[in-house]
Amino acid sequence: MMTLMDIVLFCLSAFLALYFYCKYKFNYFKLKGVPHEQPTFPFGNILDVFMSGEPVGQYIGKLCLKSEGQFFGFYALTKPFLIIKDPKIVKNILIKDFHVFSNRHVHVDPNVEPILAYSLLGMKTPQWKTLRKQISPVFTSGKIKMMMPLMAECGKNLEKYLSGVVGQDIEMKHVANMYTTDVIATCAFGVDANSFSDGDNELLRYGRMIFPKTALQSLKTASYFLAPSIVKFFKYRFINEEVDRFFRNVFRNVISQREASKVKRNDLADILIEIKNQDYEESDFKFDENILTAQALIFFGAGHETTSSTISFALHELCFNPSTQDKLRDEIHTVIGKHDGLLTYEAVQDMKYLHMVVSETLRKYPLTPFINRECGEDYKVEGTEMLIEKGTPVLISQDALHLNPKYFPNPEKFDPERFSAENIRKIENYTYLPFGDGPRLCIGERFALLSTKLGIIHMVKNFKMVGNSQSEELLKFSRIPLRTAKNGVHMTCIKI
């Protein structure tokens, strides 16, 4: 039987063992000569992020901008994360040597979290490649063009809604959320969400629940990418079980109704049905309900959240840059006039200044905290003495690139002219990565850009967006992984 002294000695021994283990692990970047923040026992740099009150992506980006060199080190507990700062090395990791960095560093356990494990976001090589090849046809330019009338109808509903709130304070992220929920519901699944008629419909409500809203939820979500050992121990979900159950039922009903009706809409639902009904040689990779639901849920969640944030940030900048807003409105009317008064797919593609506005919004407000990869084998970084060991997580901070004055002078200034035909050639390659790059480039990029542009068009065409007493010119951001304004994006619309 253990005495009190035995327990004290055991605890002291365990503490000392942990201390010296952490001290040994925290020498990793020092031995490699990589700049890094001093880690804190036993949390590494994770505690610093929590105490800062900032989103992890923004915090890491600021650390990178303060340091010199091609790399920066970050400890999540005792795990070293290598952050790549050099655009040439970024290119090698994302494209040239992609075979070494084909997987994301994320904890996946299908028994605990099937949605993340079976989605393109979390799936590993080689299964992700098979799945992406099957889903890619729904996102070709031809298919996106066919969705234009459906998106335009959602845009008209958005205009109608704004006409009813003229002169009032509106929270633009919420308004954009209703629009993007309707767009994705109708374009991907043939479902009429009617968010502007029913602002508390289930699709909208459960869609907001996909991503965390509190600091604790944000830490749990971030730990899937930064501290998988904690996830492995506590076995908590990435996606709320209630959310999983709701969307699983929705998508199951959509697919069964589509199969029964034999109606073809050439949307994501049709592609998922085709995948489900095909035979594959891979005996360990069957396209079951978990895989189909995972694609649908992640696409719905990530799509409506990122697009609505982009729209709200763009409108925020237009509020505080009225000359830019006027120039954009003039272009919209001019281009539509050249297309016989019709807002067509070709008309949207002809709006060059609109593309510049959206591009600058994505530069100034990168939506994801970082691009995440895992080194699959020992890798010698070209032109350096750096050896990245197999299993090392590698991060590429969009904040550290997009907000770096070396690549974008006066980076805090909103300046769409950076992306004019003349100036865009001056932007160094691989310093602008709003959707990532390489084989794991965001599959929904075309869809996101078109739905974003249409949302902005329908808001700016006949309304003037102005700030009000609730507006914050300098936005603060919440701690959730995807960039979101902490206090909302407030403004007032005036009918023109």
UniProtKB/TrEMBL annotation:
UniProt cross-references to Pfam families, sorted A to Z: p450 (PF00067)
Gene Ontology annotations for the cellular component aspect, listed alphabetically: endoplasmic reticulum membrane
Membrane listed as a keyword: yes
Entry-linked InterPro entries: Cyt_P450 (IPR001128), Cyt_P450_CS (IPR017972), Cyt_P450_E_grp-I (IPR002401), Cyt_P450_sf (IPR036396), Insect_CytP450_Detox (IPR050476)
Compartments where found: Endoplasmic reticulum membrane; Microsome membrane
GO molecular function, one term: monooxygenase activity
Listed name of the protein: Cytochrome P450
Species annotation: Photinus pyralis
